[in-house]
Amino acid sequence: MPKTCDRKCAGTLIPHPEHPDWFLMFERNTPPVGLAFPTGHIDTHGSPVETARIEPQEEVGVDPTGLREVLSLWLPNRCRRQPGPAPYGHQWTVFQADGFTGDPKESDREAKNMRWVNQEMFATHTRRTTHHAYGDVSAEDFAECPGLEPAWCRLLHEMGMLALTQQELEAVESLYVQAP
Fold first, then answer.
1. Is 109 part of a structural domain of the chain?
2. Which of 139, 149, 145 has its CA nearest to residue 172?
3. Phi and psi at residue 154, in whole multiples of 5°?
4. Which residue numbers delimit the Nudix hydrolase domain (predicted)?
5. pLDDT tens digits, the chain, 180 residues: what are they?
6. How many domains does the chain have?
7. What distance in Å separates the CA atoms of residue 62 and residue 152, rounded to the nearest whole number?
8. Is 3 inside a domain boundary?
9. In a domain, 2, yes or no
10. Domain of 101: which CATH number?
11. Is residue 1 in some structural domain?
């Protein structure tokens, strides 16, 4: 039986050691589909900062250093877990690392096509997500060649790392309020 969602998660932005405006991302092997940063539910790790430390180890094989909180925000995004009590969604806490130790290596279970991505690429991947939200890219095509995971579109927008119109934000939100 799947775990029940605790409605709390944390994500970690890990910068490239030589190019601090490039961040480590990967395509999810598990729902929700999309290019994402290391992210996990807090219940299994105890606190947002511990989640921000442990999930990168589990998903991309690195230990983030110098974590600082950059955003805390409620989003009505669904996940693959059994829904907990309404309202559905997650209290997100996003951290940015100053660096990391270890060699990046994808988790076989959770990650594929790991890569370094900059803000210009965020915009490119977000266009793919908005085209999917508008119905121009099918769910099958999006799964085959995903854009940014929908929740991360809103999070990066709120952090000032991505600019979306209100119409685009609402369209993308329609993707993440649906069950994966």
1. yes
2. 149
3. -65, -45
4. 5-139
5. 678 888 899 999 999 999 999 999 999 998 889 999 999 999 989 999 999 999 999 999 999 999 999 999 999 998 888 887 778 899 999 999 999 999 999 999 999 999 999 999 999 999 999 999 999 999 999 999 999 999 999 999 999 999 999 999 999 999 987 654
6. 1
7. 20
8. no
9. no
10. 3.90.79.10
11. no
